[in-house]
Amino acid sequence: MGTAIVILNWNGRTWLERFLPGVIEHRCGATVVVADNGSTDDSLDWLERTYPTVQRITLPSNLGFAGGYNAALAEVDAERYLLLNSDVQVTPGWLDRLNAYLDRDPGMAACQPKVLAHGQPGHFEHAGAAGGYIDRNGYPFCRGRIFEITEQDAGQYDDEQEVFWATGACLLIRAAAFHEAGGFDAALFAHMEEIDLCWRLRRMGWRIGYTSQAMVHHVGGGSLGYSSPHKTYLNFRNSLIVLTKNLHNGWSWWWLFRRLVLDGFAALKFLLEGHAAHAWQVGRAHRHFFLRLPQVIRQRRELMATEREPDLTGMYHRSIAYDRFILGWKRFEQLDKEAFR
Fold it and tell me: In the 3-class helix/strand/coil scheme, how is 85-118 assigned residue by residue?
């Protein structure tokens, strides 16, 4: 069955024109599938005219990143899925190296390559960089990226390492593990769904990895730009949901209060920087989270009842917000290594 490269497209003809030729050229023997997420542009017409042999899956409406991939992958027959954003430029041998890394570790469910910024040569890209982590308050960060600061790639992460989560922008995952975990949480729609999935896989005893032997370049924000207030909403709402669902020890109403205070400072920062729309979205995210809280708690109880002696080491048991904005730490190497436990 091999590997299937599955690109979820939503009104992304521009990105397909720009990057799909490279994916086809460097597909390393994999099948290439474009799943259209209810696009209203002429993506599918262009694809049929230009690449008629590329397999197409047409979804009836925009189901988001999470729901769209769930629906598309139900129709893909492969041993492994390579989930690839349409705004990613691949490099020669990238997929062979990812597959080789997964081959060496049968206990690893998924892995990612080194992700560099397409428009900023030599720098890591925001969404994934050199593998992801999460702090005790649910804020994600990466080796090579802390909040808005991305590091220059000087070979400091030229390695292979287990990480807490791998980016959905370029994710190689075993099909059996994906389906056994129940796929993405479609209610998240987009953003942080890969963190939630990786966390659930880890609860099941799987590991998540990163290898610098494979490399891609990511534009980032291809469907929803980093400056979008709606992106702010999704990130804040989903981080609350993901941490409440998955945090094994330490979740409490006190934790939630502490997180709300931190988010309040984030909203204030948005206001002081002149981004009132983003500050409003933080409050909107909290309101919608509390409306969903009873359902999220039920999901949490179900997860706790089915976990299989997971190794959940790797969480950062400090506040990454404090380290970044109070202590001024901007690089992963400055973080307290003893806090990763």
Answer: CCCEEECCCHHHHHHHHHHCCCCEEEEEEEEEEC
Predicted confidence (pLDDT) per residue in 322-339, tens digit:
999 999 999 999 999 999
Gap between the Cα atoms of 80 and 108, Å rounded: 12
Cβ atoms of 164 and 134 within 8 Å: the answer is: yes
Give the Cα separation of 176 and 199 in Å (integer). 16
Q: Which of 184, 181, 182, 186 is nearest to 204 (CA)?
A: 181
d(CA 106, CA 109): 8
Q: How many CB atoms lie within 10 A of CB 326?
A: 9
- Nearest Cα to 65, choosing from 87, 97, 41? 87
Q: Could you give the C-alpha distances from 79 to 115, 173, 185, 294, in angstroms and in order? A: 24, 9, 21, 36
Instruction: Write out pLDDT tens, residues 278-291.
Output: 999 999 999 999 99
> Residue 143: which of 158, 135, 133 has the closest Cα?
133
pLDDT band at 112; cut points 50, 70, 90: very high
Q: Which amino acid is at 187?
A: A
**Which residues, 6+ apart, have CB-to-CB distance to 265 below 8 Å?**
321
Q: 102: closest CA among 171, 154, 150, 196?
A: 171
Q: Report whether 26 contacts 92 (CB < 8 A).
A: yes
CB 216 within 8 A of CB 113: yes
The domains of the chain are located at: 3-218, 229-339
Task: Please identify, in words, the CATH class of the domain defined by 3-218.
Answer: alpha beta
3-state secondary structure of 135: strand
Residues contacting 273, CB < 8 A, separation 6+ = none
Tell which phi-psi region holds residue 241, choosing left (phi > 0), alpha (psi between -120 and 50) or beta: alpha
CA distance 267 to 278: 7
Q: How far is Cα 91 from Cα 262, in angstroms, rounded to an integer?
A: 40
First vs last C-alpha separation in the chain: 38
What is the residue whose two structure tokens read 């109403």?
253
